[in-house]
Amino acid sequence: MIKCGVIGYGYWGPNIVRNLSNVEGCEVVAIADASPAARKRAHKAHPNLRIEADCNEVISSTAIDAVAIVTPVWTHYELAKAALENGKHVFVEKPFTNSSEKAGELIELAEKKNLRIMVDHTFLFTGAVRKIHELIQNGSLGQLYYYDSTRVNLGLFQHDVNVLWDLAAHDLSIVDHLIDAAPEAISATGQGHLNNHEDVAYMTLYYPDKVLAHINVNWLSPVKVRTTLIGGEKRMLVWNDLDADEKIKVYDKGVKINSREGVYDLLVSYRSGDMWAPQLEAGEALFRELSYFAECIGNGKTPFNDGRAGLRIVRMLEAACQSISKRGEVVAL
Amino acid sequence: MIKCGVIGYGYWGPNIVRNLSNVEGCEVVAIADASPAARKRAHKAHPNLRIEADCNEVISSTAIDAVAIVTPVWTHYELAKAALENGKHVFVEKPFTNSSEKAGELIELAEKKNLRIMVDHTFLFTGAVRKIHELIQNGSLGQLYYYDSTRVNLGLFQHDVNVLWDLAAHDLSIVDHLIDAAPEAISATGQGHLNNHEDVAYMTLYYPDKVLAHINVNWLSPVKVRTTLIGGEKRMLVWNDLDADEKIKVYDKGVKINSREGVYDLLVSYRSGDMWAPQLEAGEALFRELSYFAECIGNGKTPFNDGRAGLRIVRMLEAACQSISKRGEVVAL
Amino acid sequence: MIKCGVIGYGYWGPNIVRNLSNVEGCEVVAIADASPAARKRAHKAHPNLRIEADCNEVISSTAIDAVAIVTPVWTHYELAKAALENGKHVFVEKPFTNSSEKAGELIELAEKKNLRIMVDHTFLFTGAVRKIHELIQNGSLGQLYYYDSTRVNLGLFQHDVNVLWDLAAHDLSIVDHLIDAAPEAISATGQGHLNNHEDVAYMTLYYPDKVLAHINVNWLSPVKVRTTLIGGEKRMLVWNDLDADEKIKVYDKGVKINSREGVYDLLVSYRSGDMWAPQLEAGEALFRELSYFAECIGNGKTPFNDGRAGLRIVRMLEAACQSISKRGEVVAL
Amino acid sequence: MIKCGVIGYGYWGPNIVRNLSNVEGCEVVAIADASPAARKRAHKAHPNLRIEADCNEVISSTAIDAVAIVTPVWTHYELAKAALENGKHVFVEKPFTNSSEKAGELIELAEKKNLRIMVDHTFLFTGAVRKIHELIQNGSLGQLYYYDSTRVNLGLFQHDVNVLWDLAAHDLSIVDHLIDAAPEAISATGQGHLNNHEDVAYMTLYYPDKVLAHINVNWLSPVKVRTTLIGGEKRMLVWNDLDADEKIKVYDKGVKINSREGVYDLLVSYRSGDMWAPQLEAGEALFRELSYFAECIGNGKTPFNDGRAGLRIVRMLEAACQSISKRGEVVAL
Asked: What is the pTM of this model?
């Protein structure tokens, strides 16, 4: 039985506690949060659990094997470091840390101590992303052309980071998982309207073989949009995460270039066919992810969403911020 | 009575002929197209009109007062120049020309000859853009934050330009009209997958006062999207040009920044209210535009979508292409 | 070459003329309309055609082989009768006639004269209905459960009939075509709010084997809806005729009844799978229908949408009106 | 403090317990369910509550003031009767009972004992229905023309009733609340495909002044639909309960009848204007309803969704079933 402690009981913490409790072989034994209101909520929902104000009570507890860190990003490094030093496996919210240097340190520390780090890239465990991954891996889409995500809504949940660190972190974890290559360079633009942190931002990732990824994130949108277009040589798909029943639509559509025949002629021929919305795996993504966390602790395997994956995302975010400050100037990775 | 000749009877030409014919005080007297198939179609639809293979027959005809140039962009300069030299007013498809230098020459020539140039920025005459213009002008949206347009579909209609010159030209004419300022700089990214011309491209325009415009254009999208988000301090709007009945939705939503109160607290307060979809002016935009063309010829007034407006768009396109070639490096305007 | 005359150049007539003109082996030689405005429009669009005020000029013309009757329903019988008596094949708008008795007379007359009657049930020639027909015929849906159509909008185009004769006539022609059986009985309800003709109406058709068809038509709806649900034992489909790209969605969903196991247990098991939107045949339905008309004239075959099909629809409409007047009392067919 | 017991911890029971617990002045003290699995779930969620297998332990407990009956409809009468006889106020799931006779008995018993009965017509407490009620009451819609609801999905949750008793009960409670008149008569049609209970059904309610209500319910639909059209003389509205943000859209559209002017002329003139989506009251409807229950117990007032309201719905359901068995024959109320 893996005994778990959860640090942070704000917006996402309750979901971690609820799901961890349902994972076979896992048991939540303590929750820590500095806020009295959060502790009150935690106690009401889990009257039989140990609730602490001081997270060190959890981190240093010998009764605990693993710690979930569900706090703002600027606190991740200190908490994760302390947890690793105390011999705990670590499950940490995305983004992993607020600097690639700190991420590197944690990775090293975990390796030295032979402990697992898992970064909470929940989307990778959704039925939608798993299906897209499958369609790319089995060649259904053919050679990738582009990945284009729009993730906008009215919301500004964090005051210590810009919209890229909040929203684009999701998209980066997804492209990192889906695209079998590392980005060569990043160009990003954006603007802060309410304070100095960008609330509207755009980034383009250049991959080998002409693959382009573009991410549009915005905290000042009147409507919520969660739509990704993925173009491939053979097929194209639309992932609308807000569609309750048909999140992924695969289009048997394509374009082939033709020889030039005259001023008004088209350069391309279009193939248009059926559309298909595959049924997606049901169940909660976070539950699958936490089960995988328990499994990796159990068998000592490195999760694919480990500290190195978290570090790759942090590096992209750092590059994007650097590019934004120079109004789009490309930053090599 | 303004006697008009139309050069080019491909995809858009028939609409020009049909609408010009209905404009009070205008008469289409001749159509020219080098393609026999186009001439056949023109003859079938307009059995009583003069149909020419050689456009010079139209351009040099003394029976003609104005010429509509509805041909690929690389032909605009030569045709417009000849028309102006022959004393004709000119209505020319967007983009105005394929270089700002040529655009400047045409503007000068028209001024010397006291002739009108109108660039076909049809969108400016739609009920939707007119309503948005009104809402910005009368302060309904408050200080602008951003303009974010997505204009994607499966289509590659021109082999001589990239997707920016084809699709983004629309958006640029719209932001040029809506935003009461000139952009300071442009950053653009993109990629050509089928040939060297970009089929997927993104551009960010930096305006004074933190106003940002972003344009997403794509010829390789499985679905057609024509959606623009506009954020303002007071209200925000969504313009979905594919919605038959409710193209514009105005949201009484806003964000106000608050003082910092703690780690988990929000930085902002949200205002959320009713949504309102104003009824838009009915009627065909192109008819309104061509009526305005006739009116400007009649009273000698300079249209707001004149050669200078056309030139501004061409300059932005040139800057964007320059930026794309350097992977997003900002180009000052 | 089949020489055609078209009677009626109101809303639908221009489409008939345009499509007939494009049918191989057909030629429109004359148009008749009593309204000077309609004749003016006809002349403008077809300057080389004979335009008559008196339809008898067309009906009795020896230069004409077939007549398309595109006038209000109460005029169909007289016009069709005269046309048949003059030896013309007849293409007539839906509904065929305003009484089953008159429909019977026309059928008899046509048979005696060996002439073709085709009733304009355009929907049967759309890609959507053809695909649904195929899916039912090839067993993809399995045993049919129900057909449920909603056809509502703001519109009252005819003052001589109620909404059933206007809108439900479409649905009845479709169910008549799709369901391989005759309805046993009809129950209908409705109400006229603006005058005595029902502007809101509902009808249920009872078919053998528990197949139920329901039709909801409404001239007083703020939004336009054209949606049909079709449930089958194996699969179910949704036909949204207003969806530009995915009119038909086939759901691999089903229900199977189980034995009863307890108060809170479900009686049924659900099967849920992929959704599939087949590409539909492109092209204009009316063109296909008129080509088929020409083909039937040429080879002497009876079209499936002949007078008898028209009569079946008229009988259902009569039964529905009888039922409405008794507030839903079932009328056997 | 009102001490509450909850009978039934199936699908809806947990919501009742959770919301009742949050109502000021209320306390849930016991839950009863015959199913061991349900009791296990109840215990896990509420470790400190008394959980009983035998509902009589709750109904007869002197420590309890009010009982919520959240069980299948055929058990309501016995349970409610016992609760009232034991001096408990009663909150009971819709439909109130499975016969109007039993409903009448319960009403009488409650009056004799001076106890409250509230029937759980949750929809009446949603922001959507409250807004529609307001728009009808303040004359915004003008004279009502029709109410037309479609409530379909794939689901068959109850084996003891047909789809009318399950789904249409919601719509009937809503029309009963919104329309200031009693229906005069009902015609209903339907069919059971999987067993003898109708899984597809339609009903029309005739109200005075030409007001018509129509309800379409279906357990065999591949898609979930929750859409209601309401037409009025002045304005019309669409209520789409599945739209997260804009559930109600009010259309400034109307129709006025004109004098007849000719065969092709329209009978009516159309008014078309803006659309408006009012912001709706936030918060959970069930919480508002249960707060109102507590309030009515506290001040002795009769709730508007009392036993008599429940009885009216049951009578309509009985009439509809009677009509269905005669294939639509109207049943007077």
From this structure: 0.94
Rounded-to-integer distance, Cα D133 and Cα D152, Å: 23
Contacts of A237 in chain B (CB under 8 A): 222
Selected for mutation to probe chain C from D148, D186, D193, D240 (highest C CB count within 10 Å) is D193
Question: What confidence score (pLDDT) does residue D52 get?
Answer: 96
Q: Check: CB of residue B82 under 8 Å from CB of residue B59.
A: yes
Q: Determine contact, residues C146/C213, Cβ cutoff 8 Å.
A: yes
* Nearest chain B residue to C18, by CA: B45
* pLDDT tens digits for range A234-258: 999 999 999 999 999 999 988 776 6
The CATH number given to C124-283+315-332 is: 3.30.360.10
Q: How far is the alpha carbon of C209 from chain B, nearest alpha carbon, in Å?
A: 40
Q: What is the mean pLDDT of residues D154-170?
A: 85
Q: CA C291 to CA C307: how far, in whole Å?
A: 18
A255·B222 Cβ contact <8 A: no
For residues A286 and A122, is the Cβ–Cβ distance under 8 A?
Answer: yes
Q: Domain extents for chain B?
A: 2-115, 124-282+315-332
| Chain A: residues touching C (Cβ < 8 Å) | 245-246, 249, 252, 272-279
C-alpha closest to that of B74 among B22, B12, B14, B8: B8
To the nearest whole angstrom, how far is the Cα of D154 from the nearest Cα of chain A? 12
Residue B259: the pLDDT is 53
Taking Cα atoms as reference points, which of C110, C288, C289, C319 lies closest to residue C205? C319
Q: How many other CB atoms sit within 10 Å of the CB of residue A113?
A: 14
Predicted confidence at residue A158, as pLDDT, reads 62
The rounded mean pLDDT for chain C is 94
With contacts defined as CB-CB under 8 Å, which chain A residues touch D223? 245
Q: Which chains touch A (3 or more CB pairs under 8 A)?
A: B, C, D
The answer to whether residue D261 scores a pLDDT higher than 70 is: no
State whether D276 and B272 contact (CB < 8 Å).
no
Alpha helices (H) in chain A, listed in sequence order: 13-22, 36-45, 55-59, 76-85, 100-113, 127-137, 163, 169-178, 285-299, 307-325
pLDDT in tens, B257-309: 665 554 444 456 777 899 999 999 999 999 999 999 999 999 999 999 999 99
**Contacts A279 to C, Cβ<8 Å:** 252, 272-275
Contacts of D48 in chain A (CB under 8 A): 47
Of D191, D255, D260, Cβ closest to residue C159: D260
**pLDDT digit string (tens) for A140-195?**
999 999 999 999 999 765 667 899 999 999 999 999 999 999 999 999 999 999 88
Q: Which of B304, B300, B331, B261 is nearest to B113 (CA)?
A: B300
Question: Does the model's ipTM exceed the 0.90 cut?
Answer: yes
User: Is A215's pLDDT higher than 70?
Assistant: yes
Q: Which of A47, A242, A245 lies at the smallest CB-CB distance from D48? A: A47
In the block, residue with structure tokens 């028939």: B14
For the beta carbon of residue A172, count every other beta carbon within 10 angstroms: 28
Closest residue to B159, CB basis, from A253, A260, A329: A260
Would you list the DSSP string of C152-172? EEE----SSS-HIIIIIHHHH
Q: With respect to CATH, is domain A2-115 assigned 3.40.50.620?
A: no
Residues D167-209 pLDDT 10s: 999 999 999 999 999 999 999 999 999 888 999 999 999 999 9
Name the fold adopted by A124-282+315-332: Dihydrodipicolinate Reductase; domain 2 (3.30.360)
* Residue whose pair of structure tokens reads 């969660």 in the numeric block: A226
Of A246, A272, A273, the CB nearest to C275: A246
Rounded CA separation D264/D281 (Å) = 47
CB-CB contact of C236 with C228 (8 Å):
no
| Residues of chain A found within 8 Å of residue C276, distances taken between Cβ atoms | 274-277
